[in-house]
Amino acid sequence: MTPYDRVPDQRPVPAGTGLTLEDALPAPEMAEAGGVPARPRLTRTVAEMRSALRELVAGAADDDASDAEPVTVGLVPTMGALHGGHAALVRRARAENDVVAVSIFVNPLQFGDPADLEHYPRTLDADLDLLAAAGADVVFAPDVQQMYPGYPDAPIVTVSAGRMGEVLEGDSRPGHFDGVATVVAKLWNIARPAVPVLRSYFGQKDAQQLTVLRRLATDLDIDVDVRAVPIVRSPEGLALSSRNTRLDAAGLEHALVLSRALRGLADAAVAGEPVDVQAARRMVEDEPGVELDHLVVVDRDTFAELGPELLCQPLRRDALALVAAHVPPVRLIDNMVLPAAQD
Prior knowledge:
ATP binds at residues 79-86, 203-206, 232, 240-243. The chain is an alpha/beta fold.
């Protein structure tokens, strides 16, 4: 049994979740890692992280002194409780960069519900095993006082996500995207002085967050290349999420309705048929144990909701279907691209 076979309350992870270390990493990678790969360097303070990055960058430069290209660093911000989706981010960063850094920090600024913050899984030992096998070089795992000295009376100055942070997920979770933007801006600014080229990796599952962070980098002139990685799903289709560990077997089964509803919309779009959002909503609402928050189709760039006049005909450009629902005791999100009809 690997450390990731258990969740924080010591219940076994239900089968089929894609949340074990073996699920997260394909068999060839586990074999190459020898089962017990060396863990990445663990840093706890900003000074330690910057020092480690400078050392790793210098080492990478020395290893390839003949290469005129600058050393690149791939940063993967996370809140821990890592799963196959996170492993995909790290593998992508490993393939595209000389140095791979991962942050693990449960950010209180992005939680509106204190209970959700309290119960968010914290599995650092298991996370380090997964990151070792996935190829991370260094991990930044600060405590809240390191990130926000004086918390909860700090920080005083934060980042606003603007209009993008007030719709859909932002409407359901006021202040959430302000908290995300603030912590990610800090992480980028912690890493940036120590690295020549910074790339930052995020999952497409959090589609609205991804769009907010791209605008953050653009609007505030932060020198970072934001890169997206496709959603990783369990064999049954459930989008992997750290919150899935809090679902029992029945909850995992009920949660599959989210991806089924989105897949129906995507299939209609591919076929050049009207996109019936109301039918998709009814599908989710009729599922026992699931309370729908929202299911909408939006413009991929602006997140403006597309109205019936656009959805009653073949899509003229790619759109994005978004769903959020409560599956006790957690709230889950998912999304799927709806491709434009082919001429």
